[in-house]
Design a protein that fits this description.
Elements: H1 2-18, E1 22-36, E2 49-63, E3 67-80, E4 88-89, E5 92-102, E6 106-118, E7 130-145, E8 150-163, E9 170-184, E10 187-200, E11 209-222, E12 225-238, E13 241-255, E14 260-271, H2 273-280, E15 300-313, E16 316-329, E17 337-351, E18 354-367, E19 372-386, E20 391-404, E21 411-422
Length: 429
């Protein structure tokens, strides 16, 4: 926890010293409890438990001519009153700082992300099967204009990935070069090359490796959407062997109307646990559990596709998404897996301070050589009542279910929660 705590202090100090021209802050405190009828998520000998909870969600950002910073944290302390597990900090956080020493020419970037991973992908998600991860990165961005439409961008990064219990701590040094051509005011084409060196602290357990990429990138912004498309190659050199593959990514969003949007994302590239966490983790994005990243020192090729439709009108908010993800590890095929699923979220304002919401998630997982298949289903219904200007009461019911073709790996769990949420007045949003 120390790495992100120190960095948060640095960012908050910078925020206070800069006298921001633009600042936004949102904070929420919560306290309450949860009852589970199968807290260990076991197929047999189910054990019930009451969990006391206290948490904080903070989102603060600031911007000046020479600085941009944001701190997002979702922190929660959980105490298992009948001692099924030791008390845990169920938390995630991320901090970003951009120092503009020469606006539009030279910037220095600092980023830190903190969260949780599930140590063993075959075991249920419980406190005994979680570990913390922290990734800290920093480095310069330099952009030089060659002509009115052409520029060169050079970036360098140092990143340290820390794992609480897994022996996969490592340091990544990387550099990239991009030749950018503006095709129009809202469209550009670039040629990009990059190189990464990943070095593990314990090289007796994990071998260091190199990764190189070369790709063409198109960025376009239009009145009703954005498009970014990358296509090229990436190469991995590990233990004297060279692996080559396609690098591709697509990020497309489209406003269908004033109240609805659609987005599509796709990526395929070589990655590792720390790189994957740094690119895809977002603090507080999945309160149901830790990030689905395998804490292994073995690099892998990841392919992922997701599509999301969202609707937001007056008192009704709806989001529907589907996703596919496949990991192919270079040296340990037992870790290979394929994940397919979808989510449905909606919230409805009922008036008079009442609101009802629901979260539904389904996921199918196939695991490499083991021929194991697990299906996950999770559903939550939440009823919120505004008690005062700054105080809300939340009642939640959550159902978790895992079915498997391996005997003894199924479980069901019912959770009932009561939470009080306090949001101070005077927040800037």
């Amino acid at each position: 926890m120390r790495p992100i705590r120190n960095f948060m202090c640095c960012i908050l100090a910078s925020v206070l010293l800069q006298q921001p021209a633009v600042a936004e802050t949102s904070v929420e405190f919560r306290v309450g409890g949860t009852y589970s009828d199968n807290v260990r998520r076991s197929a047999l000998n189910e054990e019930d438990q009451t969990i006391a909870r206290a948490g904080l969600r903070l989102d603060t950002s600031t911007e000046t001519r020479g600085f941009e910073g944001r701190l997002l944290a979702d922190l929660e302390y959980r105490d298992f009153l009948d001692d099924a597990f030791e008390a845990e900090n169920f938390s995630s956080a991320e901090a970003n700082a951009l120092f503009k020493f020469a606006p539009d020419v030279f910037h220095w970037v600092v980023e830190d992300k903190y969260g949780m991973l599930r140590r063993d992908q075959f075991d249920p998600d419980t406190p005994d099967n979680r570990e913390n991860i922290n990734t800290f990165s920093t480095g310069p961005d330099l952009r030089l204009r060659i002509s009115n439409r052409t520029s060169v961008e050079v970036t360098a990064r140092y990143r340290h990935n820390w794992f609480e219990t897994s022996d996969t701590d490592n340091t990544t040094t990387s550099g990239s070069l991009a030749l950018i051509r503006a095709l129009s005011r809202n469209r550009s084409l670039s040629l990009n090359v990059s190189a990464d060196r990943v070095e593990y602290d314990d090289e007796d357990l994990n071998s260091s490796f190199d990764r190189q990429t070369a790709y063409l990138s198109l960025n376009s912004q239009v009145s009703r959407g954005t498009l970014q498309f990358d296509i090229g190659v990436n190469e991995l050199r590990d233990q004297g062997e060279t692996f080559s593959g396609t690098l591709a990514s697509l990020s497309w969003s489209r406003s269908l109307s004033e109240i609805s949007d659609f987005s599509l994302t796709y990526s395929r590239r070589f990655s590792d646990a720390g790189d994957f966490f740094a690119r895809f983790n977002s603090a507080g994005s999945d309160p149901q559990g830790p990030q689905e990243i395998i804490p292994s020192g073995d690099p892998f090729e990841n392919e992922r596709l997701s599509a999301t439709y969202s609707y937001n009108r007056s008192r009704v908010r709806l989001s529907i998404s589907a996703f596919f993800s496949e990991d192919e590890f270079q040296n340990d095929a037992d870790l290979d897996r394929r994940r397919t699923g979808g989510r449905l979220n909606f919230d409805i304002g009922l008036g008079s301070g009442w609101q009802i919401g629901s979260r539904l998630r389904y996921e199918d997982r196939d695991f490499g050589r083991s021929d194991r298949n697990d299906d996950y289903l999770s559903g939550t219904i939440e009823l919120d009542r505004r008690l005062a200007r700054t105080l809300w009461l939340s009642l939640q019911y959550t159902y978790n279910d895992r079915s498997s073709n391996v005997s003894g790996q199924e479980y069901t769990e019912n959770r009932y929660s009561l939470l009080f949420r306090f949001r101070p007045l005077g927040q800037t949003q």
